[in-house]
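Run log // design_07
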């Protein structure tokens, strides 16, 4: 595994622990090259699909990732879709969306 993948994996695991501490039941989509790295459910908040990106560079364009997540609607209505970026150890939420009426039932 190259160092960039290890770097990203560390933040996926970190984010998973953060969400579990908030009461989410989380699963990491191991080896995922799809839209989402973490999948979770919460008794009160429903479902969560989260993509975790990490970078060591100062500027990062997430346009492609945001477009991919925005267009994804193949989940139950009310599912939260989120893109999180870890840059130099700091977390920033870049996108949050909720699947509306066109999701699956």
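design_07 sequence
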């Amino acid at each position: 595994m190259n160092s960039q993948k290890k770097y990203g994996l560390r933040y996926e695991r970190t984010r998973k622990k953060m969400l579990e501490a908030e009461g989410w039941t989380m699963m990491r989509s191991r080896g995922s090259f799809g839209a989402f790295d973490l999948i979770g459910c919460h008794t009160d908040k429903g479902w969560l699909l989260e993509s975790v990106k990490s970078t060591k560079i100062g500027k990062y364009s997430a346009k492609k990732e945001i477009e991919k997540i925005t267009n994804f609607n193949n989940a139950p209505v009310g599912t939260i879709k989120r893109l999180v970026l870890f840059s130099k150890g700091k977390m920033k939420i870049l996108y949050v969306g909720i699947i509306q009426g066109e999701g699956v039932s």
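DSSP finds two helices and five strands in the chain.
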